[in-house]
Structure formats: C-alpha cells, structure tokens
Amino acid sequence: MALLDQTQQGYYQGNSFGNYQFVSLDDIINQFMVVYVGKQKIIPSCTRVDVAFHAQRALAELSFDTFKSLKAQEIVVPPTLQMILPHDYVNYTKISSVDSAGIKHPIYFTRHTSNPFSITQDDDGNYSFPGEFEIGVNMDFTDGLINPWNKSGITPAQQSLGDIIDAPNGFLNFKQFAHKSFGHNLSKIYKSYQAIDVTDINQINISAKGTTQGSGTKLFGGDLKLGIIGIDPNVHNPGGYTKAYTTGNNVSPDLNMPWLQTSNGSDSVLEWTFGESSVTKELAEDEFIDVSTYSTVWVVITSVVEFDMAAATYDAAIFGENSIDDIVISNLTEMQALTTGNSNGNSTTWTNYKSTTPSEVENDNYEDDVYWPYEGERYGLNPEHAQTNGSFYIDNTLGKIHFSSNLSGKTVVLDYISDGLGTESEMQVHKFAEEAMYRYILHAIASSQIITQQIVPRLKREKFAAIRNAKLRLSNIKLEDITQVLRGKSKHIKH
Q: What is the pTM assigned to this prediction?
C-alpha cells in the first residue's frame, strides 16, 4: 500500500513541508504491536500500554545524543539580565549573542558567581527568625512583569485594539479598550497573579497603592482589585481572559473571585473604584488573613473599565487604564525556618555581579600595540576571560539564565535539547532512526519479561548496533563537506 496519501498540490499548498522524513510515535507503537507481539513472535504477549511506555522512554533517551532534537530560542536581554528557561528545556548546547550581521558569538559559562539563598541576619550577624516581614517576589515591579508574575492572555482581536498588561515603568499597568462583542459596557476583565509560598505561615496582611481610570468622554471609570485566593487562578478560570458578563446567569468568574476571608469575616480584597489616584490601601489594623491551612496562596489583581456607551456605538479609540504598585504582603507569624530578606529573589552576590561591568570587558581590547605586550598583563589569562562576548550562569532552582551586564539589550540565542515528548507534533522519529526505536523497545520489553530472558543479550547487541547506525545516518556527513574543510586548511587536494 502506498505511503503517500496527499497530492502534490495539497503538499505544496499546505504547511507540513518535509514531514515525509518522519514517522509518528503512534505509528511506531502500532507497527511494533503488529510485527513483534503475538504467538510465534519474539514477544509472545504484551499490552499496548507497556509498548507506549517504552516507546516514550526510547524517544526521550535517543533525543539526547542520537536524534537531531536541537531547539533554539531568541530574546533581547531585558534590564533584569534574565532569561526564563524554555518549558521543554533539558540542557543547553550553546548560548550566543547575535551581532548586526546575524553572526552568533559564543557566550561563556561562568563558574565564579551564583544566586544563593540570602539568609536574614540581625545586626550582630546571627541568623534571624523575624515575626514580621514581607513575602512575595518583585512586588514593586522594579524588574517588570516577569516570572513569577503571570498575566491573562490577550486575544489577537484585543491586541489589535491595543490592550496591554505590562510593567515597563516600575508599576503594573492595565490598558483596556472598549469592545462591542458582548452587548455590555465593560472591557475585558484582565488579571495578573503570583503564587505565594505560605508554608509555616499562619497570618498575613496586604496593602498596595492603586490608580484607577476616572470618568471622561464615554467613560465611567475603572475598577481595580487586589486580594488573596486559595486556588490557582488558571484552575478557577482557565480561559486566560474573561468576558465581562455581569447579568443573568453569565457572571464572570473574575468578577466573583473566591477571595479568602479575613478575621472579620470579609473578603480579603482591596478595591479601587472610579478615579482614585495613587491611593494606598490596606486591611484594617485588627484584620488579618488566616492561611494556616494552606501551603500556597495566590495574590491576584483584577482590572476592568466601564464605558458610558451603548453596544451599537462602541468607539475603538476609547480606552481606560488602571495601575498598581508597591504591593506589600506581610507575614505576621514568627518563623521557625530560615528566611531571606530579598523579596525579589536576587541575592547580594547576583546583584553585585549584574551591576558590574565584567572584568574581561574592562581588559584591553587587543588593539593597543604597546599596552599589554610590554606590561605582560595578559600572560596566563584564562581562555574563558579572553573575550568580550559576556558570560552567563543557569539558576536551575528558579529556572532562569542570568547574563552579565554587558549583554543588556543585546539579542541572545539559546540552543538547547529537549526529550522530544513536549507536544504531540514533537513525538515523531526520523526514518533513519526508526529501526533503532524498534530495537530499543524490543530489548526493553524482553528485559522485563521472564520468558524472554534468553534472548536479551542478542537484543542488546542489536539495539546498540541499530543506535550506532542511526547516529551515522543522522550525522549527515558528506564527502564534499570534508573536502571543503581540508581545502580550508590550505592543503592542495586533487579532485
């Protein structure tokens, strides 16, 4: 039976170019069940679940050093000098900066700094176990709206209007346009939130400074809320953004957040209504939020703007803005465990590192014919410092890459490997390595069954042979490439 089930027109007008070189993991599992499992076959009996498990393990293991599973991401390094590790990241292969010509320059790993846990100490240097201190990360948005802060997704339609959730100026700002999709006078309801670790914490308090949209042309104004909930906002409302329904049975989840209760029996929420400007609010002095039964709570900010217009007369040029800053979440419990005084998660070590020009950049730039040859200051220089490209280290605890200060504003490329299991589209195998997959699965299943132990050594040899063949095939070495390299060495190579 033919393998191509697509016309040439369908292929060239589609978007699945080059897919014929791959076979899906599901096809490998199905074909393995047909060919290798059954009476009078190598594997007498085996469930499809077992085959699927070992197939995924084979895909993951072979992705690390056999398959071409290299991925890449590019970002412009923000002022925070941090890059979040990709969601399917396993290990990096290379990190580079990119110049104006598109050429990649390697950035080198530094072994001489880190971002350790900064222990709170008293004036005498003793470890401190304070009874009142702030919790949460980047609550003043000095570092912008970065992890661990999250925000609502914005639809393409709203992006085209200009809806924005961002903190470029040291405060969180919501810019929300009018829209006419739902027959009411509210904007979308957007939110931003952060998970807070409250392990060993019993009581907390909250305060913040908020500004809301005032009344104006076709505007009633904005409404802004800050509060604490005990459920992941994505679980409460997985949509990412919310239609601003307010009537009938269509009440928006984000207008009725499951706020925790305070000690006085009220919602643990602060609210700013129409036209308030830089107003600081906090819970009453005798109020607190009981979090003793939680290990994690979420601080949530919601924003909505109300417009004074009928659905038929919506004006896309009309928008409102709400903003919030200086959020303080105070722990009121005397701690039994070590704490950190750096609410932004940055240690003194990392703060000093990112605020200093790297020593290799301060060195002579090799253009002076007098300075370093006569002084001898470059004698014995470590190769990792004989460059001005910058450096990095990876904080696996926080899931971030930290860069040296000379890389701020530059474009960097992260080349990394994954295990091939991230998404359904990634769970496919190059046909050069298809036999290696079958042999890997076959050996793994035979090794786990008592009745097939006598053939395990043979299957092990066949597995390694198939993997070796796959590596050779996927290496894609061409004679012309080797010849060109040798010519580049100024060798006289005859054709």
A: 0.54
